[in-house]
Amino acid sequence: MRILHDMYIRNEDTICAPATVPGTGAISVIRVSGQDALEIADKVIRCRRGTITSAKGYTLKFATVHDASGEVIDEVIVSVFRAPHSYTGENSIELSCHASSYIVSAIMNQLHEAGARAAEPGEFTQRAYLNGKMDLAQAEAVADVIASQNAAAHRIAFKQMKGGFSAELKGMRSELLELVSLMELELDFSEEEVEFADRSRLDSLLEQIIAHVSRLIDSFRLGNAIKSGVPVAIAGATNTGKSTLLNALLGEDRAIVSDIHGTTRDTIEETLNIDGVLFRFIDTAGLRETSELVEQIGIERTFKKISEASIVLGMVDLTRDFETTCETVRSILDKVDFEAQKLVILLNKTDISDVNKNVSTLNYIVSELENKGISNSSAEVVKIIPISAKTGSGIDDLRAVLAASQRDLLADSDTTLVTNQRHVQALTDARTSLLRVREGLAAGLPTDLAAQDIREAIYHLGSIVGEISTDEVLGNIFRNFCIGK
Q1: What is the dihedral of CA 299, 304, 309, 311, to 10 degrees?
Q2: Does 192 score more than 70 pLDDT?
Q3: H helices within 336-381, ranges in order?
Q4: Could you tell me the CA-to-CA distances from 310 to 229, 234, 339 in Å, in that order?
Q5: What is the spatial distance between Cα 33 and Cα 254, in angstroms, rounded to a whole number?
Q6: What phi, psi does 406 have (nearest 5°)?
Q7: Fold match between domain 143-219+418-466 and domain 232-410
Q8: What's the half-sphere exposure (Cβ side, CA atoms, 13 Å) at 249?
Q9: Interior CA angle at 349 toward 345 and 352, to 5°?
Q10: CB atoms < 10 A from the CB of 323, how many?
């Protein structure tokens, strides 16, 4: 594993940082970690009994912190952790003080004077990784656990942090390493034409690993949706009530509502937690023919957002003339990929529309769906809900349909979902190498060339867990962490 030389040098420093945000609660926690953490703590902390240096690991001590003149800054509780039994694998303390910004700043100043430097973003977790307390995939999952905004995202991140994803990757690497070792052994006995790597077993293992890697890659769409919010595009013609719907869902005036056509020129995105699942609602520009350049750009972005959404909310204005309504319906249906997306058709403005026309519109929608092979039995793919975005009628029904559509995300499952773009790229590269191996073996490729492609696959899988790492990758990962973690 290649790591910057100065990273090892800095890893010998003792670091400190607040692990909580000062002034936001009753207490704040300050972390100190490094070879001299306990000695530095004794320079600024006076225990009622004994010292921090003499304390056993996993103990709490009541103490006071003093400034340079001897004045008491605060009374604190100190948690003592001795290497290697700590988060970082180093000697560490966690100091709990009152959550005053002044107190935290004063204690941090005393720790700096005593020899500890300010930690960089993610440096505590980085040290845990460098000291073998967790692999790189687990370290990245720590940030995801902190950032999780719903039950499903938390469950996925916590499983990855505990090593579930890493165990799968390491298992695949181990099997590939065994095979490539046998293949390379054959090269040492090439004159005897000895075959150590059973070709039938190799073919079978390749198929299994390619299928496994492909499943992990395919899971990224769902995993990323859970992590960032299930993307829901609100689509329809201008002035059908899309912005009013977004405001009704959020319970605030987030989008501008106007009778002027083309008010929404760009996409507006907001997230909302519904029954434990995070949804990312995207209010799009209205679909219509226009020569106005800015509005054309907005409509192009609308098409892109619709294609990227997991769920499309198709807005239909029941007060428009029947021909215009039918045109809107066709426009929405043509943009939806029924193999990969779910569609909810919202019949808006039911509070002021004509009942007979409503029935005609509904019959037309059903007819168009049947023409596309979507029947009434396809309830999981298409839902039709009458609403009034202005009065709020039907909005609770919409929330219920959205929650039900993603209910499987909250179900207990052992299936691993990939949520990280770096991971999915590495998996894609590994699959490309393995596909070359399969094609090469089928074409009678020499053993040494096939072995090289397997080594490339092993490299890409290893880069996810940190078996193979570069300073650039590590820098990109940990700089996105918060200070104190």
Answers
A1: 40
A2: no
A3: 355-371
A4: 10, 11, 11
A5: 44
A6: -115, 15
A7: no
A8: 28
A9: 145
A10: 8
CA distances to 16, 47, 68, 95, 298 from 98, rounded to whole Å, are 17, 17, 20, 10, 50
| Of 429, 427, 425, the residue nearest 476 (C-alpha) | 425
Which residue's structure tokens are 């509005």?
295
State how far the alpha carbon of 231 is from the alpha carbons of 225, 238, 346, 368, 481, in Å: 7, 21, 17, 25, 25
Helix (H) or strand (E) holding 137: helix 136-147
CA 310 from centroid of its chain's CA atoms: 16
> Mean pLDDT across the stretch 246-274?
65
Are 194 and 186 a contacting pair, CB within 8 Å? yes
pLDDT, tens digit (0-9, with 9 covering 90-100), for 2-40: 344 444 445 689 999 999 988 778 999 999 999 999 999
- 127 and 33 Cβ atoms separated by less than 8 Å: yes
Q: Does domain 143-219+418-466 have CATH number 1.20.120.430?
A: yes
- Angle at CA of residue 52, ends 47 and 55, nearest 5°: 110
How long is the chain? 485
Q: Hey, what are 355's tokens?
A: 């009942």
> What ranges do the domains of the chain cover?
5-134, 143-219+418-466, 232-410
8 A C-beta contact, residue 94 and residue 31: yes
Report how far apart, in Å, the C-alpha atoms of 369 and of each of 117, 314, 333 are.
Answer: 65, 13, 8
**Contact by Cβ (8 Å): 112, 135:** no
- The per-residue pLDDT for 217 is 94
Q: What are the φ/ψ torsions at residue 48 (nearest 5 degrees)?
A: -65, -35
Domain at 5-134, CATH class? alpha beta
Sheet holding 382-386, edge to edge: 268-274, 277-283, 230-236, 311-317, 342-348, 382-386
Question: 433-453: per-residue pLDDT in tens?
Answer: 999 988 888 887 777 788 889
Long-range contacts (CB closer than 8 Å, 24 or more residues apart) made by 202-207: 202/441, 203/438, 203/441, 205/175, 205/176, 205/179, 206/434, 206/437, 206/438, 206/441, 207/438
Q: How far apart are CA 10 and CA 32, in angstroms?
A: 14
In this predicted structure, what is the pLDDT of residue 110? 96
Candidate from 203-207, 268-272, 372-376 with smallest mean pLDDT: 372-376
For the domain made up of 232-410, give the CATH fold: Rossmann fold (3.40.50)
37-40 long-range contacts, Cβ below 8 Å, gap at least 24?
A: 37/90, 37/91, 37/92, 37/93, 37/116, 38/80, 38/82, 38/91, 38/93, 40/14, 40/111, 40/114, 40/115, 40/116
283 beta partners: 234, 268
Is-contact 270 233, C-beta < 8 A? no
Phi-psi region of 271 (alpha: psi -120 to 50; beta: other; left: phi over 0): beta
